[in-house]
């Protein structure tokens, strides 16, 4: 499903963010990526959705080697994965419905399919009744649910989340995790970078810890392992 | 690969085209003042360009009228026998850069002289019995600019007594017309680049406000082409709209000037280019330049935002 083989990433300014990462993630797995700030977590995540290209090594997702993929093939790769961010990345002038539909419009789905799928995912994140509202009329948790809905609306086999609960209060964070669990239960692979100790220690899943650009720990039913 | 590309093109559905159009015009409306500024920039540029072009084309037209009259007269030595003239004409025709050679006997030459002088010419009629002129070849060159060089070659020939081509005046005329052309071209190019710069800056500003949108489009898997289309349309529309006023101004203005010149100066040898086809051609050219400036401006500024 996701495989990284000897991945190195050195930024043009000389920062060595990843120093030989080897990892294999099975289809349907739920994986936390933890580690101190500046340890390479973000780069690890960015390489997965091909915002960054590794300096060396291969990253194979859904059978495509992202290290070798050509610039114009990137959109095809991105359509097979959902990406979720700490800051939601919603378009303020579009309604909840339109924000989610946007992901299908840009890949030129038919209006019928768009309508069906958008309502389906809005139902999943329990925002069906707020479809006509604008992002600034929603709470942070609701906004993140919209962004999750957008990420899964084209039914990607992989969802990649970069600190999805980072901006949310603890209670809301749990709601978001419920949705991730639900998505994972339906067979979607979830890779989540997080700083939330509570969550990692309570909803126990595989934990990958990155420090100094290397994987220092990889446990099947791990815990957060840091004190912050 | 080929099949995939075909599919990509046919997959550009009507719905998508509609979406791109709506997006483009929404953006223009949202950035109303910037759009207005861009259109104005194109308008001013094209106004100047069209006026310069109209002047330039007319200068060119008048200059070529004058240039076409430029000819070389090669007078033949009196001692030469007329049965050799055919051979001489062939010899001249075979010279490089010579377009045509016409023989003019001294009698014809005198007739032409008398005619061109009008009433005063009558005085020369008495010379008909004792013609002081010589037989001559009249030579036209491929390009008027070649006149001096050809004349020099002709002068070297043995049977030629003297060469006349308006020495001095011809060179001066060419200097003036060439200078006018070069200055005009430089000005037009300079103006076009200024407008391109202005448009690309305007669109850059509208893109900055849409940066987030572009980023999200890229993250959900939109192709660069898909993202680029609305900007392409927007730039094109801005450029074309900027061309409208210049076209109206030049059409009305040129017609007026043309009428005045024709009425007052109709008798003089100066003749302006006719309104049609000049104005339709200029209008098309303005639309084209406007569109190209707009598209170029928008695509250069969108390019760097696509690298996410």
From TrEMBL, chain A:
Bilayer topology: Peripheral membrane protein
BP GO annotations: cell division
Transmembrane segments: none
Location(s) in or outside the cell: Cell membrane
Major localization class: membrane
Keyword Acetylation among UniProt keywords: no
Gene Ontology CC: one annotated term: plasma membrane
Keyword terms, alphabetized: ATP-binding, Cell cycle, Cell division, Cell membrane, Membrane, Nucleotide-binding, Transport
Sample GO molecular function, one term: transmembrane transporter activity
UniProt subunit comment: Homodimer. Forms a membrane-associated complex with FtsX.
Listed NCBIfam families: FtsE
Known function: Part of the ABC transporter FtsEX involved in cellular division.
Similarity comment: Belongs to the ABC transporter superfamily.
Protein name: Cell division ATP-binding protein FtsE
Species of provenance: Fictibacillus arsenicus
Gene name in the database record: ftsE
